[in-house]
Amino acid sequence: MFPKIKIDLHGIRENTTRVCDKCKSIGIDVTAITKVFLADENIAECLVTGGTTALGDSRIENLKNLGCFNMEKWLVRIPMESEIEDVIKYSDVSLNSEIKTIRLLNKEAYKQDTTHKVILMADLGDLREGYFSTDDLLSDVDKVLQMKNIELYGIGTNLTCFGAIIPRPETLQKLVKIKERIENDFDIELKVVSGGNSSSYTLVDRGEMIDGINSLRLGEVILLGNETSYGTPVEGLHHDNFILEAQIVELKEKPSVPIGEIGIDAFGNKPEFVNKGTMKRAIIAVGKQDVRIDGMTPVDSDIEILGASSDHTILDLTNVNKIYKLGDTVSFKLDYGATLAAMTSKYVDKEYID
After folding, report:
1. pTM
2. Which cofactor does it need (predicted)?
3. Which fold is adopted by the domain 9-223?
4. What pLDDT, on a 0 to 100 scale, did the predictor assign at position 163?
């Protein structure tokens, strides 16, 4: 059935091995993030065999799918109060920045007769999650250490996802100094210093990662082969592990500019059109409900995407050398956002290639 996304398990496995080996060579463990593919067991298996030391996800629903893998499970989104019971039940580690939430985790861990590991997040300027004040963080360290069913596992940070702040050695050095201050002030040893996501892998790839960072949470660089500081492909990795295929349902010659008064489209936008004369247009049966159209790149570089509604995408085939027929399929490479949307959509079938 179409649309479908073809998933190259071999490419994902090789990317995992290459990324994990490079990280391990400088003392960094990798928590591989599974949220893009909803913790699909077939893909998660590639991450495990490829050498990741832990699996992480932002959704408890996805972590439930990973119980067959005997390794640490990380919840990488700050826990909601409404999911505390499941956080303890399905994750070994969670990222936190609110002492009230950690107290709830401690209480629930006591009920379940277990110990839960927490990583306190420090905001180093990206302005997403984390303590912006080091003094506030240190104050909560003291409180966490008094909890009997919570282990202060380490500290971490997140960069690039919200504020698009590029990881720099001097930025991550601040995280290491916070770790050293905690250890000195409280006479403890923190096991984990988690220095970010695929944007921080750029420092690993360039040989610029600082000492003291011993953990990264990596998704896109493994799955798509891209570093996320500048959005560029990493040399030596596979970049086409997810290919979307959609079927042509209409193929006709039509004007390039709509006829009549132009208002707003189905999504509240007023479109603009360039008059290119009559063009050969194809409609494929995939739309904004299935995938992020802006994140699709036709494998056939002569094809131009003109736009999309919720269920249809319009293509310009005027300058294409290949002869496309009704019922043929068109293939697209996907960026991170498009992969996330397509893998999440229940309307997109999946085909595994190994």
Report:
1. 0.93
2. pyridoxal 5'-phosphate
3. TIM Barrel (3.20.20)
4. 85
